[in-house]
Inverse folding.
């Protein structure tokens, strides 16, 4: 537990934590308020306007905001996970802990558990701020907010948030593992981002393969009956949500096992 | 020095190869308890590789390590609970303060009390800046914090890789006093350094490695007694006569001129035998106008490592009629 609470303290004081959440929150608020402010202007009339208004129309807005949080948040999680793991190697702090007799595997796994906790906080904060912004946007646009208290949606919300968090945690684990293998923040972040977009691009050509890939399953795991899987999940080839959740778990565990094994075997220098 | 308590650290036939380069080639070290052990070697000799092996950062290809009398193998990480280490550069979270860094580091490995952290901040002279982010620290401050971090668990064995790096003269003196005090408490301090002068005044024992092998190990005083230097000053026009007088009793390689114009002769002989030189020269009617004597770790180092010069000179003038520059003794005998 010492290591766990230490990890939380380290992450809560780390600028990258708040910059990442701040960016995600800032972008979401900007988009939602922009939609609210311009929904009735000439540019957003017609089909585009109707689609845009979904972002500020409750109860559907809950789903849209969550999609944003898990979609762009997934990319941010890759970067964040890579930054945390890479810095342990780059700053030599893993070396210092190992030289004190700390277990490498435990150190790395507990580090990621703390990342997962911070991701949970980030998802909740971003979602809450996004909902608040959507209410403001709805008022700006003159869209009624009567769906805000929709009982069915609110009942489903905790489970949907939990699934969303789990998907983002899986994506963060990929960044974490890539940076561990690269032993570098920058290389981990770069490779993580490249992987993220390469998978999205590859889904255009190899949908039957890519639907099993980590970002695709993460997105597919969140798709509801009426929702979409965003830029991933191979479109029509996307896995069903429940099946995708299993693959999310497989990717998460697999990524962390690779990170742990590599850390255990690696020669630490520098 | 109290070597009676057994060995704090021992390696037997330690081997490590990086790709095609052999970093350690059967390294055997024996470090008694309660000493300051200077671990010397030229660049690339295997000092840092040894440090990494001793702290479990890398694993040897062969050989064995014993820490505090017990085998230290892969998976024996708890053995390191009694070891404090500063390997290469000090490692910290740059965005955290010194106090927070020590606290978070203390969360790994052996448990540490908050009081201990405050004691170490005080020892490192960082109390005034303890809440500042480490990224704003000078190199010397980071080094002091690194030494404090190595002392977190009040270790029985301290492994320090170039601990004087970045320290100012006052910091070096303070570090030396601290390490000597720790050895006085029965702790063992293993210091890898290229500052021969620093090791010479601090260490009880030295081990010198070259090309991954131990080439000499033993009590510093004993090693240096075999490497003493006496410098005698005679009238410049009598230098040849002085050499001729001394040569029959001294092997030629022990006798060199340091500075013919100034009349300095350098004789590699134990300092306590200095009077033999004066007596012999006086017997031949050659009178010595100045003498310096001392021992030189650098000479020993250069001789054992094949003349790979590192660091700075370390001649210590015991009774210097001239100034310190004359006493530098660099290249006079090697």
């Amino acid at each position: 537990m010492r290591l766990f609470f230490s990890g939380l303290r380290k992450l809560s004081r780390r600028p990258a934590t708040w910059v990442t959440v701040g960016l995600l929150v800032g972008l979401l608020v900007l988009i939602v308020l922009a939609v609210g402010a311009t929904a009735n202007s000439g540019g957003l009339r017609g089909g585009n306007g109707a689609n845009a208004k979904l972002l500020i129309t409750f109860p559907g807005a809950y789903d849209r905001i969550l999609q944003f949080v898990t979609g762009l948040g997934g990319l941010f999680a890759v970067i964040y996970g890579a930054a945390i793991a890479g810095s342990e190697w780059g700053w030599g702090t893993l070396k210092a802990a190992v030289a004190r007799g700390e277990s490498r595997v435990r150190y790395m796994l507990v580090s990621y558990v703390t990342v997962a906790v911070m991701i949970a906080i980030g998802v909740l904060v971003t979602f809450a701020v996004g909902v608040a912004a959507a209410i403001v946007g709805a008022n700006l646009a003159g869209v009624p907010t009567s769906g805000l208290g929709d009982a069915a949606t609110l009942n489903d919300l905790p489970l949907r948030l939990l699934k969303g968090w789990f998907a983002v945690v899986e994506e963060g684990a990929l960044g974490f593992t890539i940076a561990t293998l690269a032993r570098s923040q920058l290389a981990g972040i770069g490779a993580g981002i490249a992987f993220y977009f390469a998978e999205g691009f590859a889904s255009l050509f190899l949908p039957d393969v890519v639907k099993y890939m980590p970002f695709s399953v993460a997105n597919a795991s969140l798709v509801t009956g009426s929702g979409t899987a965003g830029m991933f999940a191979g479109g029509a080839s996307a896995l069903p949500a429940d099946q995708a959740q299993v693959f999310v778990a497989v990717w998460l565990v697999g990524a962390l096992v690779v990170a742990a094994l590599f850390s255990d075997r690696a020669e630490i220098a520098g | 020095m109290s070597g009676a308590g057994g060995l704090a650290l021992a390696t037997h036939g330690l081997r490590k190869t990086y790709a095609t380069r052999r970093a350690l080639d059967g390294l055997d070290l024996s470090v008694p308890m309660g000493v300051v052990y200077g671990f010397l070697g030229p660049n690339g000799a295997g000092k840092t590789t040894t440090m990494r092996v001793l702290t479990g950062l890398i694993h040897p290809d062969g050989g064995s390590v014993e820490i505090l009398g017990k085998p230290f193998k892969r998976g024996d990480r708890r053995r390191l609970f009694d070891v404090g280490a500063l390997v290469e550069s000090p490692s910290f979270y740059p965005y955290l303060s010194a106090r927070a860094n020590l606290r978070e580091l203390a969360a790994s490995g052996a448990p540490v009390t908050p009081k201990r952290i405050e004691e170490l901040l005080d020892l490192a002279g960082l109390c005034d800046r303890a809440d500042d982010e480490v990224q704003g620290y000078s190199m010397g401050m980071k080094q002091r914090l690194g030494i404090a971090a190595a002392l977190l668990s009040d270790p029985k064995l301290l492994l320090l890789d170039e601990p004087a790096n970045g320290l100012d003269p006052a910091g070096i003196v303070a570090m030396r006093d601290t390490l000597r005090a720790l050895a006085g408490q029965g702790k063992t301090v293993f210091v890898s350094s290229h500052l021969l002068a620093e090791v010479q005044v601090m260490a009880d024992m030295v081990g010198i490695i070259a090309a991954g092998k131990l080439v000499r190990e033993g009590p510093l005083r004993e090693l240096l007694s075999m490497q003493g230097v006496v410098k005698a000053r005679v009238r410049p026009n009598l230098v040849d006569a002085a050499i001729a007088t001394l040569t029959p009793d001294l092997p030629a390689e022990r006798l060199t001129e340091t500075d013919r114009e100034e009349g300095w002769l350098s004789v590699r002989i134990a300092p306590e035998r200095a009077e033999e030189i004066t007596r012999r020269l006086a017997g031949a009617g050659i009178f010595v106008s100045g003498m310096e004597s001392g021992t030189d770790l650098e000479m020993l180092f250069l001789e054992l490592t094949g003349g790979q010069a590192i660091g700075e000179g370390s001649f210590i003038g015991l009774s210097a009629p001239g100034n310190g520059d004359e006493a530098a003794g660099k290249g006079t005998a090697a």
